[in-house]
Amino acid sequence: MSPGLDWPLSHTPADEVAVQTAMGLLTQIITSGPYRLVILDGIHEMVSCQLLDRAVLARLAACSSDETRVAMT
């Protein structure tokens, strides 16, 4: 299990770096295959706050290995 990065409080450059770091880690986790299920809790709020783009989520879901399922809540 990997710990969450907590909820960004604003839309600062530091928040953007935290989101990019998290996405890099998630990409590595999802493409590597050792996890059967990855749950991205609160991801829709990140999109609505414009901290994350829907296209990024689509690419993330598309890159998952055959053994890994991605759930976004």
In words, what does this structure look like?
With 73 residues, the chain is mainly alpha-helical. It has one domain. Helix content is 48%, strand content 11%. It contains 3 helices and 2 strands. It has helices at residues 13-32, 43-48, 54-62, and strands at residues 37-40, 69-72. A two-stranded parallel ribbon has the order 1-2. The longest helix has 20 residues, at 13-32. It is globular.
> Judging from the principal axes of the Cα atoms, what is the shape?
globular
Q: Enumerate the strands of the largest sheet in spatial order, edge to edge or round the barrel.
A: 1-2
Topology order in helix (H) and strand (E) letters: HEHHE
- Compute the separation of the termini in Å: 18 Å
Radius of gyration: 12 Å
Mean pLDDT: 79
Query: How many domain units?
Result: 1
Number of strands: 2
Assign the structural class, choosing from mainly alpha, mainly beta, alpha/beta, alpha+beta, or little secondary structure.
mainly alpha
* Spans of at least 5 consecutive residues with low confidence: none
Treating each run of at least 4 consecutive H or I residues as one helix, how many helices?
Answer: 3
The description of the largest β-sheet is: 2 strands, parallel
Helix content: 40-55%
Estimate the strand proportion: 5-15%
